[in-house]
């Protein structure tokens, strides 16, 4: 069977049309629900490779759970946070100019009570605008049993809600911030296979239950912002331009990891971690 050049052209046009329809539907779902989920970014083998890099780093340097700006310490999370296919989706949601604000591993150990209470990401960050999106990229299975994320569709349209601070040692959140009185019947589970991601708006209410599985639940949590957004609490915050241009200059420039756990990056990370906690706590 001979395939003509015209057949190839038609196939390319068909593929582009399907992708355009997918992009349009994804943007529509995000605008309506405040999130999209189950987006395939990596194949399972590549996801496993990055999991192994993360766990090898843990063996050498200790637990990495909830360390801020981990992409300035390790090459793997920087590579994942700047995947072109991930940035393509972020561009659809907040525009062509993109700053990488933070990247953090979030890990729930197997058969533990660690959980995440109902909250909105933007509550304590001090950002001036909500042109922000969070990617949660699964490096291990995120199932209902292992405590995948749950979302409240449409909650991003309510703006900032009142959060209380809880004293729950099992709450993964730094301050145990919690929105009370959530109608959990309206929540939607967002399971992810390794290599799949969800993207959610900074005001979207989300939570997750304990990991009752026999495997670790490992995700890379990445926050992106548009360059016109600025820090309102101080002028010390930092970010990294990963697509487009930044004509505002509101943030100091983070440096991507050029090797794992470089001495200068480790020293800077101590300052960045302290600044993050002080900002979130103020």
Secondary-structure blueprint:
Layout: H1 5-33, E1 35-40, H2 44-61, H3 75-81, H4 84-94, E2 98-108, E3 116-119, E4 132-138, E5 149-151, E6 164-165, E7 177-178, E8 188-190, E9 196-201, E10 206-208, E11 217-225, E12 238-243, E13 252-253, H5 263-281
Parallel strand pairs: 12-13
Antiparallel strand pairs: 1-9, 2-11, 2-12, 3-10, 4-9, 4-11, 5-8, 5-10, 6-7
Report on this structure.
- This protein has 282 residues and is an alpha+beta fold.
- The chain has one domain (34-281): q2cbj1_9rhob like domain (Jelly Rolls, Sandwich).
- Helix content is 30%, strand content 23%.
- The protein is built from five helices and 13 strands.
- The strands form three sheets. The chain has a seven-stranded mixed beta sheet with strand order 1-9-4-11-2-12-13.
């Amino acid at each position: 069977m001979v395939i003509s050049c015209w057949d190839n052209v038609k196939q390319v046009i068909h593929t582009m049309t399907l992708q355009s329809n997918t992009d349009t539907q994804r943007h529509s779902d995000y605008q309506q629900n405040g999130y999209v989920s189950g987006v395939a970014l990596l194949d399972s083998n590549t996801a496993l490779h990055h999991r192994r890099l993360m766990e090898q780093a843990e063996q050498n340097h200790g637990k990495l759970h909830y360390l801020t700006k981990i992409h300035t310490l390790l090459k793997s999370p920087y590579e994942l946070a700047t995947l072109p296919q991930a940035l393509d989706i972020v561009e659809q949601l907040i525009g062509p100019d993109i700053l990488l604000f933070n990247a953090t591993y979030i890990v729930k150990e197997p058969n533990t009570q660690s959980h995440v209470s109902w909250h909105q990401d933007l509550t304590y960050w001090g950002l001036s605008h909500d042109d922000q999106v969070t990617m949660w990229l699964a490096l291990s299975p995120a199932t209902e049993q292992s405590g995948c994320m749950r979302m409240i569709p449409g909650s991003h349209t309510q703006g900032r809600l009142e959060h209380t601070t809880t004293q729950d040692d099992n709450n993964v959140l730094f301050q145990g911030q919690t929105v009370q009185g959530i109608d959990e019947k309206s929540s939607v589970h967002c399971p992810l296979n390794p290599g799949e991601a969800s993207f959610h708006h900074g005001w979207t209410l989300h939570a997750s239950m304990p990991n009752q599985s026999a495997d670790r639940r490992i995700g890379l949590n990445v926050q992106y912002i548009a360059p016109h957004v600025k820090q309102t609490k101080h002028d010390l915050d930092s970010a990294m331009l990963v697509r487009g241009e930044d004509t505002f200059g509101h943030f100091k420039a983070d440096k991507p990891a050029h090797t794992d756990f470089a001495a200068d990056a480790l020293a800077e990370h101590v300052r960045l971690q302290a600044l993050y906690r002080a900002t979130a706590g103020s």
